Amino acid sequence: MLTVNDGYQELLDKDASAALRLTQSNRSLETARASISDMVMTRSKEARARAEAGLNDARENFVRFMDLAIAAVPEPGELPKLKADGFSVLTDTCGAAIAVGRGATSEAEIAMVQQLYLTLCQPAFAAISPRFTSITENSLRTQSKSVLTFQALSVTRPCGVWEQLLWHSSLSRASAFSQFAPGWSNQSSRWLRQ
To answer: Contact at 8 Å (CB) between 65 and 24?
Structure first.
């Protein structure tokens, strides 16, 4: 029974890790979006170079976090496609704005690169970000249901008579105390189940 318990806990940990990595990947995309925006808005070569360095870091972080998310789950499902789509936004969809933004010096060039960013880049980021949120929320919802099932299985595990008596005694005291301190049961019942 402990082997099943440990295996199930490992699956829950991997789901939590994947959700965290997805959130970090989405954050890396948002950092890349901000860096591209800085590149196309600035008129200073130094600021443009800093923005491009930030973009490169964000791109590397995006790939790294997506790889970690994919590795964390037994069945990656739509994660590889999400990674490919996110990378495509950074390299293909925004590629023209980035390339023109690197060398834009005149007001006409800056206006053109800003228009490229607004018509191609920005909508692509706006479209992909909710996909990350949706997958993360679904993962957390599934994980929450799994945690409840895991806790129910953990409570029913075979154990000694004294452990059972101690467990039920603790629950009885917790429920009696919660009548006098209403907020207490939500916080402490989680502790009692651990």
So the answer is: yes
Q: Which helix (H) or strand (E) holds 153?
A: helix 122-155
How far apart, in whole angstroms, are the C-alpha atoms of residue 122 and residue 127?
A: 9
**DSSP E strands, the chain:** none
pLDDT per position as a tens digit, 52-103: 999 999 999 999 999 999 998 877 788 999 999 999 999 999 999 999 988 8
Q: How far is C-alpha 104 from the chain's CA centre? A: 35
Instruction: Supply the Cα-derived Rg of the chain in whole angstroms.
Output: 25
Q: Tens of pLDDT along 117-167?
A: 999 999 999 999 999 888 877 766 655 444 444 445 454 444 544 444 444
Confidence of residue 18 (pLDDT cuts 50, 70, 90): confident
Q: Check if the beta carbon of residue 65 is closer than 8 Å to that of residue 132.
A: no
Q: d(Cα 15, Cα 134) in Å, to the nearest integer?
A: 15
Closest CA to 76 of 139, 119, 8, 130: 139
Which residues, including other chains, have CB under 8 Å from residue 76's CB and lie 6 or more apart? 70
Distance CA 116, CA 105 (A): 15
